[in-house]
Structures are given as C-alpha cells and as structure tokens.
User: Which sequence fits this backbone?
C-alpha cells in the first residue's frame, strides 16, 4: 500500500516511510494526541486508539464542518490527517478511516510540498503549516528529525529495490 501510494502520488518512497514512522510509528491507523477543547473523557474516541468508521464519524460530528466544533481537530489515521479539508478529501474518496485512502491524501499533500519547497520544508509544512525554522539546540523539531532519519530509509528502500 505504501509503495503503491508513493508511486501514485510521485512521493519518494523513503520520504513517505519517514513520514509514516514519525506520524504513527510506521503507519498505524490511530487517532492522534493533539490537544482538544474537550477533556479526553468527553471525546467519542480514544487518543492513540484505533480509527474505525464508527469512531471517525463520531469524531467528525464533534469536529464540525469547518473544524471548529466542540471537539476540535485531531490527527486521523496513518498520516495523521488533521486539517478538516484533508479529512474531507479522504472522505470524498471513500473514508478518512480507510488506511489506503488516508495514506493517499497524506502522500499527495507531502508530495506537493516537496515539489514546491524541497524535502526539509515539505516535512515542516506537513507538520506545522510553515516552512522550516531550526529548533532550539538539543531539541530537534519534526523537520530535523525527519531529515536525520531520511538517509536510513533511503538505504532501506534502495536495498529493497535491488
């Protein structure tokens, strides 16, 4: 699924692997841990818990159509789609809770950022919505962690294709 969606979207496979590792420890179909307006015990899903059609639909109802509902926004699925418009794009293709569709939208988004801004800024944009800014000394940010892990995944992907 990861290879197929990387090919479909034009995202370098190693970049996609790094993103899946950082977002959900390798592509697990889970909810994120973002802060929400409601206390955790009032949410219709469990942070870090599995994404199912039922839990996603209950989350989406609380999220509201513009992402400003009482439940706020939360990362969903293997690529942790958090912005409501990305979740809605996945829903239009069959459902944000479906790993293949979730990965497709996440990879399309990251691939577009790579084409327009390069890999480091693409990672930063995917995570924060802004281009790369160095983190404080000793505390690497998302883009720095991603770039540190990229050579390993380039090696793994290269070895797998031989």
Assistant:
């Amino acid at each position: 699924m990861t290879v197929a969606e990387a090919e479909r979207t034009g995202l370098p496979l190693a970049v996609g692997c790094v993103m899946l590792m950082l977002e959900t420890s390798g592509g697990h179909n889970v909810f994120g841990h973002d802060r929400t307006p409601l206390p955790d015990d009032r949410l219709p899903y469990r942070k870090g818990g599995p994404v199912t059609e039922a839990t996603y639909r209950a989350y989406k109802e609380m999220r509201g159509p513009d992402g400003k509902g009482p439940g706020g926004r939360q990362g969903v699925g293997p690529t942790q789609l958090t912005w409501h418009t990305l979740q809605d794009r996945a829903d239009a293709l069959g459902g944000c809770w479906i790993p293949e569709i979730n990965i497709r939208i996440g990879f399309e988004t990251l691939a577009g950022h790579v084409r327009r801004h390069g890999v480091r800024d693409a990672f930063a944009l995917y995570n924060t919505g802004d281009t790369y800014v160095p983190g404080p000394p000793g505390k690497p940010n998302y883009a720095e962690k991603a770039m540190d892990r990229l050579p390993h995944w380039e090696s793994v992907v290269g070895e797998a294709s031989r």
Observations:
- The chain has seven helices and no strands.
